[in-house]
Amino acid sequence: MTTQQIPVVVLAGFLGAGKTTLLNHLLRSARGTRIGVMVNDFGDIGIDAMTVAGQVGSTVSLGNGCLCCAVDAGELDEYLEVLTRPESRLDVIVIEASGLAEPEELVRMVLASENERVVYGGLVQVVDAAEFEATWQRHPGTDRHLALADLVVVNKADRVAEDELRSVRKTVAALAGRAAVVEASHGRVDPELLFDRVAPEGEIEGQMSIEDILYGSEDDDHAHPHAAYESLSVTSSTPLHPRRLMAFLDSRPEGLYRIKGFVDLGPADPANRYAVHAVGRFLRFYPEPWPAGEERLTQLVLIGSGTDASALRKELAACELNGPQDTPDEHSMWGVLRYVQRTEEEPDES
Ligand SMILES: Nc1nc2c(ncn2[C@@H]2O[C@H](COP(=O)(O)OP(=O)(O)OP(=O)(O)O)[C@@H](O)[C@H]2O)c(=O)[nH]1
Predict the structure, then answer these.
(1) Rounded CA gap, 64 and 44, in Å?
(2) What GO molecular functions are on record for this protein (predicted)?
């Protein structure tokens, strides 16, 4: 039964920590290793599934909501069944959890899987070095998540000063116990760190027993972090005015922690769509040519707490172009271009 078991690695981390970026790095540097991917998005639109580079064929999107709530173990097994068919010839499966999912639940589901072709391959927890302190204060569950991890990636090392990075790393290492802690920028970790971490059969390397994982502990508070977060998905076929979009983004409320998706800026740049990522006060646009034959849509997921969904929806609707008389002027893209990263190696800090 142990022959050719495929490790299933759970990739978790708070909203915007860099899970998709790390996953894309793994896919790009896989060098012959065949990676199956399951992506779970919080929000109606599967933005993460769309942004996992060139892997659409082997991606199974788990649909709306937090995996631990939306998908029971039976459903997870259905997806695993698809990915473990012999014709897939996969070497490893990575489940990218929604930034609001409980990794513990996911790990439990993988361990409870009835699929004999899979084996739990460990929990990788991605941490945003720049946002760690704030996230840790807001979410006491962070301690538990890190304690469960087999590997912690302190990502966005490029966004913090050396001493801050050292201090985050120290805190994380203390919370993560025996887990390996590595620093990374843009999720660039050695893929072997993940793929070789298959736990011995029937045992998880880490601090919790199988029973703890499978059945939970008595005092387990199951207050999922997403209980306090709302997500709003917006899809529009009317292009947005770059200036009004920037005014909206510049004045986004504190509670609006995460924005991701794509925007259509219409005549201001007919060739490209703009992937947008906001995490806290961090904002980036990534222009990319419109995929041939794809309908030109703005698709955004906004995640926050204490935000007014209908007001946000109205504000975004006000960014839409109002017919030919509302054509953006030639300088209208300047605001957007300030937040375009020049190269991946040389991020333009906001
Ligand atoms: N400067 C910098 N930016 C990064 C790094 N890693 C990721 N980012 C940026 O951070 C933003 C969020 O990254 P994602 O990979 O989408 O984060 P995520 O954890 O998948 O986000 P959710 O799906 O919302 O939970 C994007 O704009 C990334 O380009 C990094 O190491 N340094």
Answers:
(1) 5
(2) hydrolase activity; nucleotide binding
Strand ranges (E), the chain? 6-13, 35-41, 59-64, 92-96, 118-128, 151-155, 180-183, 230-236, 256-264, 272-279, 282-289, 298-304
- Give me the phi and psi of 136, to 5 degrees please: -65, -40
- Tell which wins on pLDDT, 90 or 264: 264
Cα of 144 vs its chain's centroid, Å: 19
Positive/negative CA dihedral, 256, 259, 265, 266: negative
Query: What is the ipTM, given to two decimal places?
Result: 0.98
Instruction: Report the distance separating Cα 12 and Cα 26, nearest Å.
Output: 15
pLDDT value at residue 65: 58
| Ligand 1 near 172 CB (within 6 A) | no
Strand partners, 152: 125, 181
Which homologous superfamily does the CATH classification assign to the domain defined by 229-337?
A: CobW-like, C-terminal domain (3.30.1220.10)
Element (H, E) at 277: strand 272-279
CA dihedral angle for residue 314, residue 320, residue 324, residue 328, rounded to 10 degrees: 120
Q: Is the dihedral of CA 317, 321, 326, 328 positive or negative?
A: positive
* Atom 29 of ligand 1, residue of closest alpha carbon: 21
Establish whether residue 25 lines the binding site of ligand 1, counting it when its CB lies within 6 angstroms of any ligand atom: no
- pLDDT at site 341: 72
Alpha-carbon distance 181 to 174, whole Å?
A: 10
Pairing of strands 272-279, 282-289: antiparallel
Query: What is the arrangement of strands in the sheet containing 6-13, beginning at the earlier edge strand?
Result: 59-64, 35-41, 92-96, 6-13, 118-128, 151-155, 180-183
Nearest to 264 by CA among 240, 228, 288, 229: 240
User: Domain map of the chain by residue range?
Assistant: 6-225, 229-337
pTM: 0.74
Query: Are the CB atoms for 278 and 270 separated by under 8 Å?
Result: no
**CATH 3.40.50.12780 for domain 6-225:** no
Q: How far is the CA of 188 from the centre of ligand 1 (A)?
A: 12
